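Obj: model holo form, ligand = iron/sulfur cluster.
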Amino acid sequence: MTRKAYRSEKITVSFDVERCIHFAECVRGLPEVFDIDKRPWVQPYRSHPDRVAEVVIRCPTGALQFERRDGGAEEPIPDANIVAVAADGPLYVRGDIEITDSTGTTVLEDTRVALCRCGESMNKPFCDNSHRQANFRDVGLLGENRLAARPDGGGRKLRIVPGVDGPLILSGEIEIRSADGKNAYHGTKTALCRCGYSMNKPFCDGSHARAMWRSE
Ligand code: SF4
Ligand code: FES
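Output (holo structure tokens):
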């Protein structure tokens, strides 16, 4: 992952193009700073650093990040770990997130990620907008609850392991919200579909094996 940095005296904004899928929040939120018709397209000195930070935090994919150079507040770690299922799109996750590979090695620690659930991304486990080309369709309601409560509790951190040829394994304090915002499940351990074939989305129902889905 390569991040490009844009500096002002008071704040550095960084951008990872591979995680940007969602042409809206930044450009709409602060057009004088984020303008894709200008070079560079991020000009952080054009607004107050607090305002720049506020809009960066709205970026749902984590493509945008910031670091204060003036002693201002850094991005807070959210109080809750929330997985918001998007209709016909990815899982938007916010929280105290740690993604590890199957050997337990940390791949990423972040507060915001968009994870592929259509199975088609070329940048797995992240969404890269391939769901559009693949015409992925799912209303984003919550299937039969497969969130387990572990006797020892989940821990504050949300750990996500993208399984090889299988689901996303989540553990920690988890809230899963339906796309219409009407329902939410809470628990501490679950497996979420990332192949696109489950009949019980967003949960895994083992369809990846029947579909012989490959994550690589
Ligand atoms: S808010 Fe984030 S994901 Fe959306 S366009 Fe801006 S950088 Fe990309
Ligand atoms: S859900 Fe966006 S690429 Fe799969």
